Amino acid sequence: MRDAFEVRTYDGAARIGELRVPRAGVTVETPALMPVVNPHVQTIEPARLESEFDAEILITNSYILHGSDDLREAALQQGLHDLLDFSGAIVTDSGSFQLAEYGEIDVTTTEILEFQREIGSDIGTPVDIPTPPDVEREQAERELATTQERLEIAEGVDVGEMLVNAPIQGSTYRDLRTQAAEHADGTSLDVFPIGAVVPLLNSYRYADIAEIVGAVKRGLGGDAPVHLFGAGHPMMFALAVAMGCDLFDSAAYALYARDERYLTVRGTEHLADLEYFPCECPVCSEHTPEQLREMDDARAERLLAEHNLHVSFGEMRRVKQAIRRGNLLELVEARARNHPTMLDGYRALLDGADRLEASDPTTKDAFFHVSTESARRPEVRRHHQRLERFDVSGDVLLASDRGALEETFDERWTVTPPFGPYPPALAETYPLNGEVPERLERQAYVAASEGIRRLVSGNPGASFTVALWDWPEDVLADLPESIDRADGF
Known about the structure:
Protein name: tRNA-guanine(15) transglycosylase
CATH class of the largest domain: Alpha Beta
Binding site for Zn(2+): 279, 281, 284
Number of strands: 18
GO molecular function: pentosyltransferase activity; zinc ion binding
Distance between the termini: 64 Å
Strand order of the largest sheet: 6-5-4-11-10-9
Structural class: alpha/beta
GO biological process, one term: tRNA wobble guanine modification
Oligomer: single chain
Largest sheet: 6 strands, parallel
Active site: 93 (nucleophile)
Mean pLDDT: 93
């Protein structure tokens, strides 16, 4: 059912979309957080996830249900929605996690998909092979081939209206990930989880994740909803959404609470280390860290889980609002300053600025230059590409806004880092009307000099003079030799 997903708003590769889930009769707005519900132990009841946290979708494990005599019969008789008391969309995993942990499971793709259909799952999952990072290529290729065979088996299973996941594997080999994505995109399956990235997340290897997601996105069509398996920490939601991911499952809210860990958008705190709660959620507004430490373990765990959910859903709403405004990358830049490896991930994302620019709207709210990485954003890249299409002639002055010259020129263009030159008529258009600090880093000037090069190379018949006050001398020295400098400059 490849018409189940529709994009409403883009910001770079990030998007707000609608995933229609016909079996549940609901439409889920993406990006969406899917709390993981353990069928045996529910730290927070699914009904509360829906009523108090506005969860539209959750994920549970059909393999656990299948292997439990009590839960299996209850799920078959009542149906998954009644069993969990949840009216939104329910995704079921297949046991692949258990396969990765224990080496084998006793169910086939056909059996588990039929079971998921029988218990009323809305989005089912075949049994793929989660290949860990950094394995030998031969293992990655062999296990990917098995996963692809199982996707083809899944296509032949009668699942009714249930949507089906097409997991994408390939370890840390980007070409295998692209190949896997192309194969999955060619099936009739519906949702595309990027699997086996939890070890990378646990090791803070965000640059590797950015490269893997970029490789996957190159192999998928624009109508493919992407689930980043295991990405449940709010500190990386903005970055992962900017990569182009749409769905996120979070067991972290419960698992971290069990270990007395407190989630924030900056990282993880231990309850024992907190004197004050840096949050405005109901839990943090009504309790102190000392009060939670003095509670019985079960109550403290539940309250910590509630906080962890509040901060996670709050960050996802913040990400959506940033997409609506067109300034998600500014939020990503702020989050990237929270951890060095997050900054690595953001820089790896910007290495693929061509992909971001392809779907980035041409008009947004004001561009804010807030860090070194701002000079590499897709808006800057697009302006540089446009400079190649300008046709200028005669004597052209390229000058910063500061200062004036008495010489007469046929045209005067303004040069503003990180964009470079532009004609005065475009001064109030996006992104050239952006907010740029007066004290710029060298990279902004380097980016602007690339814009100058593009304009000059595209107009060999024109003569160019620069009057760029306060530019670094080494950047000026690297401009094309054909460019003159204004007298007295």
